[in-house]
Structures are given as C-alpha cells and as structure tokens.
Amino acid sequence: MKKGFLLVAFFFSSYFMIAQTVYDKFKPGEVWLDHKGNLINAHGGGFLYYNNTYYWFGEHKAAGEMGNKAMVGVHVYSSKDIYNWKDEGIALKMAKNKNSLLQKGCILERPKVIYNKKTGKFVMWFHHELKDQGYKAALTGVAVADKVTGPYKYINSFRLHSKVWPINFTKEQQESAALIYKTEFNKTRRGKEGLDLYRDFEVGQMSRDMTLYVDDDQQGYHITASEENQTLLISKLSDDYLSMTGEYVRILPGERNEGPAILKKDGKYYLFSSDLTGWLPNPARLAVSDNMMSGWKSLGNPCRGTEEENKTTFRSQSTYVLPIEGKKDAFIFVADRWDPKNLIDSQYILLPIEFENEIPFLKWYDSWNLNLFDKK
Ligand code: DGJ
C-alpha cells in the first residue's frame, strides 16, 4: 500500500517536474532544464538560426573529474524562443573505432556550426585534442551534415596553415622571429614577436578555443587561439566552409585571448574574449575593427558590475554571441560558468549585450527576457 502510494507520488512529481520546465525568462547561472527535465548539456556552445528555429550545439560533459574527456559527442538542442530547449540528441558522436582520431576519451571543445547556402550542408568545426595527450596536439576538427541536427560525419582534424605565413606577418618579422627564437628565446616576447608562429611554421599552427563567423557576403571565418594561446588567428574558410583558403592573419599578438565570440553591428566587428586562466574565470576583453582581417584594437573590459563581477566576467567565460532574429541590434552574450570539479554542473550565463555610444557592454541581470531589447 505504502509502496503503491510512493510510486504514484513519484510519477505525479516527475510529471509535475516536466510540466514545470516551461521558461519565459533567462535566469543566468541557474539550473536550466531541457524539455525532458534534464540539465541542458551543451557547454562551450555555439548557436545557429535555421528555418525559424534556434539550434544550440555544445560539449556533452560527463559527471565527475573525468568530465572533460569527450565520451559522447556534441549535443544539439532546438528552440523557437531561446528559453525552452528540446533535446535533439547527439549531433556528432565520438567514434567507437580506436583508430579514429575522434575516439572516445579525446577532448572535443567549443563546437560551432554554420550553414552553407551554396552547398546546403551544415558544417561543424571544433577544438580537438588527441586521446591521452593533454592539450598538446592543438588541432581543429571539421565535420559535415545534410541535416542541421546531424548525424555529422567527421572529416578530419589538423594544425593550421603548415608552411604558410599569415598575410600580416612581414618578411622582416619572419627574419626577426627566426633570429630571436634561435638566439634568445624569451617567454615574455613570444607572442608579440611570433616566436611560436616561427616554431610551428612547418608542422602547422596550433588551434584551441575557437569560433566561426559567417559575414553578410557569406564569407566564413575561423577564429582561434593559437601560438600557445598567445595570439588569435583569423582564417578565411573555403567557399564550402570545409577547409581553409590559406589566407589568415594574427590579431592582438601576445594578448593571450581565449573564448572568442564575434558580433557585427553597423559595419563594425566586435570580438569578446577572455584572459587565459584555465577553468577559472577572469576579466573579459573586447576588441573592435572595421575589417575582420585587419585593424583590431582593444577596448578593454566590457563588464559593468561590481569589482568582483568585472574581475570574473560575472563568474563566466565567453563562448558565443547570439544575434536575435527579427530584432535590430539585439545580441546575447553566452558564456559558461565552469565547475571544473564536475563539468556537467557548469551553468550557462546569458546576458543582453547593451550599447553606449556604439560600444557594447555587459551588465548583470538576475532574470530578464527578450522584451528588454524593445525598451531601447
Ligand atoms: C579554458 C578554455 O577556454 C576551455 O575551453 C578549456 O579548454 C579549458 N581552458 C581547459 O583548461
């Protein structure tokens, strides 16, 4: 009798829990459940708006200290309103085959997906580290699908631009980097002078935290932390987005940026990023340029909060800027509040990006909804 009652109570409460997971606002940093009542598991995420629907792709983390090993793959969710997310399953599965570079137990971070209008294919790029090699390999991986939710077919992972210099690294800089590297390798000058760029010229450049950006003319860009995370590289993707053209630039050399995320407003590109402190939060950075491939300038920390909030980016690290369809100049800053002891428990921070004198800034809201963008 007692058992029966407990069973009914259990079914009733789980039904009730499912019924409760209807959201009409964002509550940054709070537990966020999908349509089945499970924690949304899409960390270091990226978004794609396609066919009147938002898709959220991210790292599926496992529980516990092993959580950063990719055992499952890239999780995808869909939503019509950005508050409520439906679990669409695993878009890219880790390979069972032990000969595959993408075997279970390797590291797969910050997946991003873009749609190619010419080919009609969905293209995913991600940061890939090989099994049992820590963060040494520093590869970027690429996969492709016919359907937005997958299955994505893994193509390959590689270092970038072997034997090709960036277009903004002059002959003089190349010679000077070679000389300094060979005679007085100096850690503090490595980023500014391109010493790791020189070191990796033959094997190809490192690629770690990354994002993608498709411009209004459909040119695709791959933006990544390279040179031991000292410098970001921006590379033009090929027309089908499946490879690189070979044209690339180094930006903000020696400034140690991770977590890159791009927005474009009134012809200007803004780049959000973080400092380099592993899983620990740090002050965010903002940079601006009129051109993806040149002229980037730092604008400092975009956060406007308490000293502690500014020092930690509201205890989070940037992963993406999500433009809101149908609303002018409405963008969401998407970040991860990492919990390194149990990465599956890392929460998401979504904050509106506001502008003053055309410069983006971030402010904390305990809760907010998309109407905030209409009040401006
Ligand atoms: C910070 C990066 O932004 C994350 O994606 C992850 O690579 C951690 N470092 C690992 O320490």
Compact overview of the structure:
13% of the residues lie in helices and 38% in strands. It is mostly beta strands and 376 residues long. The protein has a single domain, classed as 5 Propeller (Tachylectin-2, Chain A), CATH 2.115.10.20.
Overview of the molecule:
- A hairpin with a 4-residue loop joins strand 10 (220-226) and strand 11.
- This protein has one domain: Tachylectin-2, Chain A (5 Propeller), CATH 2.115.10.
- The protein has helices spanning 2-20, 171-184, 190-193, 195-199, 307-312, and strands spanning 43-50, 53-59, 73-79, 86-93, 107-116, 121-129, 139-145, 153-158, 210-214, 220-226, 231-237, 244-251, 258-265, 268-274, 285-289, 297-300, 317-323, 331-337, 347-356, 359-362.
- It has a four-stranded antiparallel sheet with strand order 1-2-3-4, with no helix packed on it.
- It is globular, with a radius of gyration of 21 Å.
- Mean pLDDT is 94; it is low at 1-18.
- By secondary structure, the protein is mainly beta.
- The structure holds (2R,3S,4R,5S)-2-(hydroxymethyl)piperidine-3,4,5-triol.
Write down the CATH topology: Tachylectin-2, Chain A
Structure class: mainly beta
- What average pLDDT do the residues reach? 94
The number of helical elements comes to 5
* Assigned CATH class: Mainly Beta
- What is the CATH architecture descriptor? 5 Propeller
Summed up, the domain count is 1
Unreliable residue stretches: 1-18
Q: Strand percentage, roughly?
A: 35-45%
Q: What is Rg?
A: 21 Å
Q: What distance lies between the first and last C-alpha atoms, to the nearest angstrom?
A: 59 Å
Largest sheet: 4 strands, antiparallel
